[in-house]
Design brief:
- By secondary structure, the chain is mainly alpha-helical.
- The protein has one domain.
- The protein has five helices and three strands; from the N terminus they run αααβααββ.
- The chain has helices at 7-16, 24-37, 45-51, 57-64, 71-79; strands at residues 52-55, 84-86, 92-95.
- It has a three-stranded antiparallel beta sheet with strand order 1-3-2.
- It is elongated, with a radius of gyration of 14 Å.
- The protein starts with 6 loop residues before the first helix and ends with a strand.
Length: 97
């Protein structure tokens, strides 16, 4: 039996697992991404939390900006190695690599 989730159901599962780490925009991006891959996939909140981190610009530069002199070069570096979603709230959702 398959239960179809909405983005709000998806987010609520993270809350239920005490893993409410993301903004609504990040949940929407992850929900759309996984739904595009396989709308019948089984939700694994713990695995998803290990795959994605949401950053604001300063946090992103702190974690990945070493060796780069500007933000755009840092983003280019990340885009060449992993998935990066630029969110409507100004944050960035980065897949672990």
């Amino acid at each position: 039996m398959i239960k179809r989730l909405t983005v709000d159901d998806f987010r609520q599962d993270f809350v239920n697992y005490n893993r409410n780490y993301y903004s609504y925009e990040a949940y929407q991006a992850m929900f759309d991404y996984y739904n595009d891959i396989d709308e019948n996939m089984e939700l694994d909140v713990i695995a998803i939390c290990g795959e994605w981190t949401e950053y604001d610009k300063d946090e992103l530069m702190s974690d990945y900006g070493n060796g780069f002199d500007d933000f755009e070069r840092t983003l280019d570096y990340l885009h060449s190695r992993t998935l990066v979603f630029e969110l409507d709230n100004g944050n960035y959702l980065v897949e672990a690599f």
